[in-house]
Amino acid sequence: MRYRHMTAIFAATVALNFAAPASAVDLEVTHWWTSGGEAAAVGEFAKAFDATGNKWVDGAIAGSGGTARPIMISRITGGDPMGATQFNHGRQAEELVEAGLMRDLTDLATKEKWAEIVHPKSLLDSCTLDGKIYCVPVNIHSWQWLWLSNAAFEKAGVAVPKNWDEFVAAGPALEKAGIVPLALGGQPWQSAGAFDVLMVAIAGKDVFMKVFGDKDAEVAAGPEIAKVFKAADDARKMAKGSNVQDWNQATNLVITGKAGGQIMGDWAQGEFQVAGQVAGKDYTCLPGLGVNEIISTGGDAFYFPLLEDEEKSKAQEALASSMLDPTTQVAFNLKKGSLPVRGDVDLGAANDCMKKGLDILAKGNVIPGTDQLMSQDTQKQKEDLFSEFFANPSITPEDAQKRFAEIIASAD
Amino acid sequence: MTTRQNGRPSQLFRNLNAKIASIPMILTALVIFLGGTAWTVFYSFTNSKLLPRLNFIGLDQYERLWAAPRWMVAIENLAIYGVLSLIFSLVVGFLLAALLDQKIRFEDTFRTIFLYPFALSFIVTGLIWQWLLNPDFGIQGVVRGLGWESFEFDPLYNAEIVIYGILIAALWQGTGLIMCLMLAGLRGIDEDIWKAARVDGIPMWKTYVFIIIPMMRPVFITTLVIIASGIVRVYDLVVAQTSGGPGIASEVPAKYVYDYMFHAQNLGQGFAASTMMLLSVIIVIVPWAYLEFGRRRHV
After folding, report:
1. What is the pLDDT of residues A142-195, one digit of tens each?
2. Are residues A291 and A331 in the same domain?
3. What is the average pLDDT across A255-280?
4. Segments making up each domain of chain B, as ranges
5. N or C: more exposed end of chain A, with fewer CB within 10 A?
6. How many CB atoms lie within 10 A of CB B106?
């Protein structure tokens, strides 16, 4: 009797315990953040979302964006949408939005005044189509960084360069010391990205916008871009001998002092941090290659597929606003090594390089990321060209420029 | 009319069970293979991007395809890879089989060793050979470690010869199977033929070339089909070994299709490329099928 009584009470408590989370909604969120630092950062989002009484179901897809995006897209178009998904905002998800597969977040955005808090404004513009907002930008990643190994330059007996020209000049000394001057991974996007960085640094912001923004083929074939190709030719010679594929393997060459430097986005910083290196002491970072201190403001954003389930739709809103929450923004971006999308949060714990980035951001020396300006199709053609250019010394800069101008002429 | 009703049932109802049983497969073949193919060819004339769209632009996708340097490299690579892998797998496979057929000791052991690589997927094969051909850790590193300082063997990092690096891995993986097929063919040859050839004093190599190989024609055709289909779809090996590098030196058509359909979000371009792949298969298959089946019907 007493035993039965006990079970009844036990059952009741269990039922009660389950009653609370039952009202919470499971929301699957897909993303491609799988490296150590990235996973820790995404954990911050999960924590913040769970605190709203819902449950974050992690749908990490390994193998970088190139692998993950086709999977995400085929799930959405195939009628099995997740609760929310990462994309680089800009034009990757454009057609999904046009096809009406993504949720319109305009009401929430007006209510929470996203237009006022998101800085720079271009981030929200990239989420906007026909005046409606379809995604939540969560961070800013910039490409325009040159990472230098102080130890490598010490070994070669030259001072650590302060800009691209000094770096090129130091090339022969580095080579003599058995160091690869420029680490460059073999994946196509890395060579294309390095070229874009050289373009901003050498030709400047206006030319960059004319070529990639307005798709002006004449400028692309002109003397300004010829200079950029000349610099890319230097970079190609300096990168000879870095037999690695992945970007983080290339970064590792810089960390271990086997290579002098690397042109890579600010996500490389996480690698230096994990290796326990200190900015300014073990490595040096030069935004805009030390020539033109301009950074691009591409980044990651979350999109919310249109769902029929009302409960889940509500949870989507909760997730969207928790991602833009000031405390989440700080916690997430510190771990990710990226800059927050709000200008009004304090990143006191940021390191030297991040502070440089924040400074440039505050001054407004920003350009849109290439993902925001060009379609994936054009990006891919560019990747094909530059991976060939950087790997094959028999292609002259002039020939490559001609092909580049052709791509820009047909770009969309 | 009456004789047919009494004696033989109508052609349509002969083997009715078998015909009903094969309906699902017939439907699959018609709807999925043929239907899918027709759909792909159809949409290759549109400017579909991420999602299929009915906006016809004629042959633009094909013009762009044949103007793309990457596609030309891919075609050239496929040609080199195709011809060499066909020749080498047949020759090496047949030689291994002929050697194994000499009633040697430990035949089972050798057979297992030769066939073993076939148990690995192309991805694993690719990774293994990526390491073996890596100049710092692989064969070049080992030989240099032994004292030959100037030894150079880094096919995967040399744009001129990278496709041969991939070919080596493909042969290592595939020849075992070809050997087994050939061995089965050789075992199917009657012992008496060998005896007769020996009595006539025909040397062994002549027996192989003029008697045995012509008798193994069906086996060779099966093998040819298996090798050829493997050539056209080569993709995963390249992805695992070089991901198309250095630069675009080891690109193959299948990879072009995948990259443009999914990475570049340009379905039209991918469809155009896959249609060209289909066309190349048809160009090879049709004359062969005509010779093979057409002739038999006439004779």
Report:
1. 999 999 999 999 999 999 999 999 999 999 999 999 999 999 988 888 999 999
2. no
3. 88
4. 1-43, 60-298
5. N
6. 9
- pLDDT value of residue A372: 84
Q: Which residues of A124-161 are buried (b: 16+ CB within 10 A; e: fewer)?
A: bbbbbbeeebbbbbbbbbbbbbbbbbbbbbebbebebb
Instruction: Answer yes or no: do A240 and A378 share one domain.
Output: yes
Q: Which residue blocks in A63-105 are alpha helix, DSSP H?
A: 64-77, 94-98
Q: What's the total number of domains in chain A?
A: 2
Nearest CA in chain B to A386: B247
Task: Quote the ipTM score.
Answer: 0.79
Chain A residues with beta carbon closer than 8 angstroms to that of B50: 73, 94-96
0.90 surpassed by pTM: no
* A371 Cβ neighbours under 8 A, 6+ residues apart: A88, A89, A90, A91, A92, A298, A379
Distance from CA of B86 to the nearest CA of A (A): 28
Written out in words, the top-level CATH class of the domain with range B60-298 is: mainly alpha
Among B162, B236, B263, the residue to mutate for chain A (most A Cβ within 10 A): B263
3-state SS class at B265: coil
A119 assigned to some structural domain: yes
Parallel/antiparallel/unpaired status of strands A259-263 and A295-296: unpaired
Q: Are residues A93 and A117 in the same domain?
A: yes
A205-242 in b/e form (b: 16+ CB < 10 A) is eebbbbbbeebbbebbbbebbebbbebbbbbbebbebb
Cis ω for the linkage preceding A340 (within 30 of 0): no
